[in-house]
Enoyl-ACP reductase (Tetradesmus obliquus), 340 residues
Amino acid sequence: MVRAMPNGLRTVVARPAASGRRSVAAAAGLSIDLTGKKAFIAGVADDQGFGWAIAKALAEAGAEISLGVWVPALNIFETSFRRGKFDESRKLSNGGMLDFAHIYPMDAVFDTPEDVPEEVRTNKRYAGAGAFTVSEIAERVKADVGNIDIVVHSLANGPEVHSLANGPEVTKPLLETSRKGYLAAMSASSYSFVSMMQRFGPIMNPGGAAISLTYIASEDVIPGYGGGMSSAKAALESDTKVLAYEAGRKYQVRVNTISAGPLGSRAAKAIGFIDDMIRYSYANAPVQKELAAQEVGNVAAFLVSPLASAITGHCCYVDNGLNIMGLAMDSKTLAREESA
Ligand SMILES: NC(=O)c1ccc[n+]([C@@H]2O[C@H](COP(=O)([O-])OP(=O)(O)OC[C@H]3O[C@@H](n4cnc5c(N)ncnc54)[C@H](O)[C@@H]3O)[C@@H](O)[C@H]2O)c1
């Protein structure tokens, strides 16, 4: 049915389904089903971030999940998990609990054991962690669970990360960022995904999919997202396309990235201005609500599912539409005196 709109546009209005029963059957046929699929998710250390929300969505769809947890965060994550701190957010809609097949210590800035410098190897937070480089984790995953279908890269490096391995520069403007800090941001936040695709691509089943998380600061200027992080996200988005081509041809897998709106995760809080970004989004995005991590998790589940089998090399915005705005609706310069 075509209906004229007041602005001169025409819109197509869907006809109601012939019977309620038929529409229910159609909806069931489109559910996301990842039963039997195996996923590896890098970048979960609590139940607040996107990585956890993606794990939960994939589990809701039936996938088996293994995690790569940043080495210095592993102990507290496992202790909190055991003590039931995450139990409320582990609850699944079928009455079960989110669980993990395997939890691996991981540091995505190191590709092989030879890359780990002495001061990290002997650091008390790393000593005893065993294998934690990207290549070693891929080998362990292959040995423990066999081939996998889904790879998720949900890593970010806030100052807490830098303070251990790199320079604390994410809060510095680009004009004040050192070469070391810039390259550290690129290493942890973009090359780590290239490294994961190099090592996990060969153990992915054809038809599989990989996903990463990016941020609008890659293409528009977001003062405060510094230290080379904006550059790292730009590289990650460009690499998404090249990897989609290369890994698509070589391994028959898809590669996409989600550009997420602001979320008060641990990494984001470390940068320091996340509450401002959340308020800004609420005031200026087309959809006026706070972004829930689960909304990103759900889109990730769709993108790695067979429903998205023709989508690859894509940057998918999950940000309440903020990315389309060219004007800040709450700008003081737009204010008008209300006439009485
Ligand atoms: N929070 C936001 O507003 C926002 C917006 C857009 C995109 N993102 C992106 O989402 C992704 C997830 O971040 P989040 O905000 O959910 O925060 P988060 O703190 O939940 O996740 C970041 C994770 O990265 C891990 N990590 C850091 N360095 C690592 C390393 N070298 N090796 C292995 N793991 C490492 C941390 O331990 C942490 O678990 C990041 O890529 C981030 O840039 C976040």
